[in-house]
Give the backbone structure.
Amino acid sequence: MKTYLTTQELADRIKYNVRTIRDTLKDSVLLEGIHYIRPFNGRKILYLWEVIEKDMVSGTSIDSIIASIQ
């Protein structure tokens, strides 16, 4: 089962400001298709909690994500 979170719900869980998630983490650490989706090709973003939690605990960085894709 997957847990989908809004930006506000993710901010509450990881204790980051919503603006920090949108301006700093999204598309640098949190990647579309891996950490979040845009359902129905819309503007709304839903974050995949289990993937984010796993990467936070394991210390996954953007470099390791890119290496795993190549």
Summary: Strands lie at 4-5, 36-37, 46-48. The chain has one domain: 4-69.
